[in-house]
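Today's session is about reading a structure prediction critically. Students often jump straight to the picture, but the first step is always the sequence itself: look for stretches that repeat, for charged clusters, for runs of hydrophobic residues. Only then move on to the predicted structure, which in these notes is written as discrete structure tokens rather than atom positions. Here is the chain we will use throughout the hour.
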Amino acid sequence: MNNSTNQSLEKLLEELGTARKNFGYPVIVAFDRKASNNVLKQEFIERYSGGLFIAPMNSEVDIEAGISYHQLERFSLDEPRLSFENADLSGSKAVLMMRAVQGKQIQLSQPIGSTRRRVTRLAEATPINGPSLVYDIELKSLKGEVSQEGRAYFNLAAGKNYAFYGGSTQYELDKLGEHFKKYFEGYDETPGDRDIIEYTLGQIAHVQGSPLKPNKFAIRTHGASKNTIQSGDGAVVLFVELEGFNSENAAPPDENKKLPYLLPNGYSANVLVNTDFLALNIIAAQIEALPENRFQLKFKLENAEKLEYRAEGNIIFQEAPLPQPGSQLYINEVTWIAPKENDANNGLTLEFINNRLTVNFTGHMQADVRVKPKDRDWIQGTVTLKWRILIKYKVELVEIDGNRKMVLIDDSDHDVEFNLNYEWSREIEAAFDVFLISTKRVETEYLSYFHATFSRLRDALTNLHLEVETFIMSSLLFRNSQIAIDSLHQPNDFITLGQLAEDLNKFSITPSENGEISVLANEKIFFKTKPYLQDVKWSVRHLPDYTGDDLKGEINENTGEYTAPAADKFKGSHIKVMVSAQKGTHISHVLVSVLRTTIHVYPSIASVNIGSYAEIIAGEINGKNISMKVEGLGELADSSRPDPLAQATQKYLAPKQVPEWEEGMPIVDKVLRLDKVVVSNGTATNTVHILLPVAMDGPYWLKPKQGQAGLEFEFWRKPSGKPEEQVAKEETSWHVRVGNGTIDDGVYTPHPSRPDGEYIVIVAIHEDQIIDLYASMIVPIPFVSAEKFLALYASVEASDNSRRARINRK
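Below is the predicted structure for this chain, in token form.
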């Protein structure tokens, strides 16, 4: 239920009654924004399959040409999450978010003056710490469409301000985000792949014979005027175009004050239906469908304020041979022509006022009459025919097949009012008198000819049909949720008020963050509803389309206590399940990730220059409070732009200067210091290694190669004006900056009982030089395979050799 305004229904009806506010659209739909975002979240959970939005991508992002690069290896995003972010018709905005749930990110840098790249940052995405891809949808530039199958969608490539939170600086966030934008646009440019990046909002069921067939729609967010109403969370408003209705000049309003706030107290949904659409496209269309050989009628809006519609065109009445005793008599074929201007005494009109439809056909026409008495010449004259038919209907909500629909019901107090009057010309009246022709008999006999045409029209007018399912309009924005309509009003255009997805908006589940939570294998978590409700039934199930044999865990259906499966009962790093709470017809869901480890960080290692910074993303599987601290020279600060899907984002600030090296300190500290960002939940920790280069590595580098016992490293340099050369072994000292093993003469030996993590850092120093000269390398093994690492280095070497060859040729 919407509680975000203090507008009464009476006030809304009064405001809508002063002037029509359809802006040229046949249908306008309004939903409470808070309720909409909750339904979008719940439906996201209901259909979440753990599948990937696009195929795992392998690509390189050129962040800064010749200086910084990012490699993405089997990087995967999960399904998009849509939310509406503001309540402003002048700048309506939505946000799409996708989380990186798997894949590895390797950042490479190429120091100025160097020809070689080196690994400076490693990060691995998981469902807990995977960075988000976030971008804005400027709704004024977005056009929703409906396919022939009824799928409502928009193109994801239409977004702006892409940011991928796998970078440290704002520049990197934007550059990485731009890479994903171009990646999406690549799909958009290939017709066969375009549907891959179409975001499906809902699915309209094109009911047989339904007059509501949306084909396009605009989405806006709306807040009420601050001078009159407290708009609270505001509304999401759809301006819908329908097949058959001319919306060529329709345009959404561009200021909040131009549109009345459509959600009065107690309602979370409202569907405004343009009375012109009902009158012209549904009611008038039934009359216009009469056979063209006799009826050529077309209705138009006559009076917008009075909601009156008038027919133009004509009706042809057939010739009537009416033989009389001793005489021949004919009333010629005659055409009733609708007047060009409104005439209260001559016209076919529809009027929609106060939920009622009045059909009025008051008309007159003059027909030629000829009479031939026996042995006499023809006598010419006329007859003027006058008639009036008045039919009344009312529009009510009627429950049909479990849903309340707008239906047209007969509202006449008595039988349909109809009469036909004749006015014969003087010549014809005289002939009737002289030759004893019965006027009453002629009029009675002609009635059947008149009715041969008129009865078709009368049948149409007395059997008008209207059945409008406004509740299905929710399917433009939501996949499984409808509006429960409970009231109908016609202040000018019709409005049907109700509740959006009452089954999903009664309560939520805690604890959770954006509908998601994580738990360790074999641990327990107690769920409850907010607000707290008794007699709730709890359940847990695998995600849709799951086909494996992993256990999903157990939940007490009465208490909400969930026990995650043991680590040996599922494969991979994690599994996802759905926990649901149900009370009667009301239900809520939460996604639960069962993980093997507790704390996840992103990145795991980074090289940060003195005075610079790095963004650290961290998550704890239970959402418990986590702390971060620096062991070393740097410090932490709040992030200026935290990842919206991350539990915690902090900025590591490197020191602006480093204390001088002193005797007793490790030799490697002369050239490369090490800080640690320790993330803890009180019982478990995880560490981000921060490398702080103290000295310039200059024209020195390490070259990996495959040795007999594994990887080996060589120390190379490029003296000024001389060819590249390997630094002499006797002038080289080798050091392990990160890792538990040892290195001797370029050969790294792991520790026999303390295995390394997913990487090591080694340093080679050129001894006995005036200044400290060195090279370092993050060796990302087993983060990536040795083959992958060597191939990466080989490709860089090949590129460098090719470049040098080109220079030499010049």
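Discussion point for the tutorial: Confidence is low (pLDDT under 50) at residues 227-231, 802-810.
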